Amino acid sequence: MLRFAIPLTVLAQRMARLSLLTRYQNALLLIALALALSACDGTTLGHFDVDEALPETRIEGNAVAAILPAVLPAMQLDVTDSESFQQEDFDFLTSVQLDALTLLITESSSDDSTDTLEDGTTDNFDFLTRVDIYISAQFDEESQRVLIGSVPEEDPQLTAATQQLSFTMTGVDILRFVEAEGGYEVEIQAVGDAPPDAVIFGGDVRYRVGIGFR
Q: Three-class SS string for 135-203?
């Protein structure tokens, strides 16, 4: 059997080259990891949904207001104030969209004090012919708003004596409105006639929130 002896100097050189190669590979790995993390900065890495209730809105009947107001009272909302939003873990927001919005006739709309006609007819949204929803906020002392959803004319919901309206959403990113210093409002712009007597409705919205991590 042949035996070969490797001089210690040669063995030391080989070990040194192996150690250098290992350090080089580790350095490349760290660089790749740093680049990956840098690329993720500002990138959406996850989503979650948040539901928020709409405050009640009252539309006076034609005995009080002969004409339906073109713009109903604005609703002050804040998705970041909800408990479910605050329970989420993230470093920054990348996007916010209003994923769904529904208006619903409330029980208080049928109270005796509201049903002045006392005809027993259930209130509904058939007095409307079109509804648009906008989000608005102040930027540099200038009011800005964008359309976020609508129920267009001839939508079957408006002719079915329904007590609930579901909007077609635009999917626009409203992050800058959510982060506006003075907060944001949701405005309802309606076309139609004043209802026979007062109608009260509430509703809810669902946000789709994009998040990232540093």
A: EEEEECCEEEEEEEEEECCCCHHHHCCCCEEECEECCCECHHHHCCCCCEEEEEEEEECCCCCCEEEEE
Look at the chain and report how many structural domains it folds into: 2
Nearest CA to 169 out of 209, 205, 139, 123 is that of 205
Report if residue 207 sits inside a domain: yes
Distances (CA, A) of 23 to 15, 103, 150, 205: 12, 63, 60, 54
User: Residue 109 corresponds to which tokens in the numbers above?
Assistant: 């709309």
- Residue 52 to residue 135: CA distance in whole angstroms: 15
The model's pLDDT over 52-68, given as tens digits with 9 standing for 90+, comes to 999 999 998 887 666 78
Residue that the structure tokens 């070990």 belong to? 15
Q: What is the pTM of this model?
A: 0.75
> pLDDT of 132-155, one tens digit each?
999 999 999 899 999 999 999 989
Alpha carbon distance 26, 133 (integer Å) = 55
Burial 44-54 (b: 16+ CB within 10 A, else e): eeeeeebebeb
In a domain, 113, yes or no: yes
Residue type, 56: E
**Residue 51 and residue 34 share a domain:** no
Tell me the C-alpha distance between 135 and 188, whole Å. 9
Tokens of 69: 């107001």
Q: Are residues 118 and 195 in the same domain?
A: yes
| Residues sharing a CB contact under 8 Å with residue 78, sequence separation 6 or more, in sequence order | 52, 183, 184
